[in-house]
Amino acid sequence: MMCNSCNGKFAFEMADKDAMAAAAKSAHEKREAWHFHVLAPNCAFSPNPKAYTFLLELTDQDRMVCCFFDERPVAVNKELLALLHGTDALSDKKAAEGSIDAAGSELLDMIGAAATAGKSWHHHMMFPACKLNGADGKWRLFVEVEGQQPTLLDHDSEPSLVLNRIERLYFGLS
Ligand SMILES: [Zn+2]
Ligand SMILES: [Zn+2]
Fold this sequence. Notes:
It is built from 4 helices and 7 strands; from the N terminus they run βαβββααβββα. It is of the alpha+beta class. Helix 1 runs parallel beside helix 2. Residues 35, 37, 57, 126, 130-132 line the site of one zinc ion.
């Protein structure tokens, strides 16, 4: 199958949840570059408007693996997120270290307002090597809020503090 949202620039293979998770763990054990995206049905990058798409990018293997879910796949998302970012990725750290710049704060405020208004929203963290990322060599945060144009924020390094806040909002931890 081809992704219909990225101008057909990449092909992806389908897998079931267990095979997809196993492929991620195997890449992790081999210390290969990998990451994933959870694409909501209405996501700008979704190849399937009737399902949630879990898109696993095995960068070093040059493979894109997709798995479709009827409901938002929270468990496998948390499991692989912990593998990717460490088990404390979602833990309750103090936000004191490092400051969030104005653009990051603005983004967080925008997401907070959308969440308060009950709008559906989601985000994508795009690594420089991400196939969805159109920002040349930068880290891109791509946030989609129901009824709004997507908001992009490009960084020269991983915006981990902003990302941590966004993920906590996404999982209802703050
Ligand atoms: Zn999206
Ligand atoms: Zn990606």
